[in-house]
Amino acid sequence: RILFTAWAPGGGHEELRVVKVDGSGLVTLTDHGVSDAAWSPDGTRIAFTANRDGNRDVYVVGADGTGPIRLTTHPAWDDQPVWSPDGASIAFTSERDGNAEIYLIDAEGSDPINLTNHPARDRAASWVAVVSDSGSS
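^ thats the sequence. predicted structure below, dont judge the formating
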């Protein structure tokens, strides 16, 4: 399946949509305006950004669109969520320190920690899964 955002009919905001790779089974998962969608590594959840109360926050929803949970509640913008390879954490961009920085939060929404502190804007985090070869030195 492919996850993407698309403008809702009539415009005004983007929604989460999923389609099978053959183009069939198109489903709209949200109806409130979203951006920055990312699959969890196991494909059961989706992290996204939504502006539901005048502020951008990070949310997680089931892959079928059910059970949305708001992970961040800070008055500053939080966006661009990306899952850790093990699905336990989400890195995201936040302006809570007055400047865009990279933060990490557990996938249930607790214990946010600041990972960067730079005078320029730090945005668009990405993860890599590192596989070690125990036979090499």
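The first strand starts at residue 2 and ends at 7.
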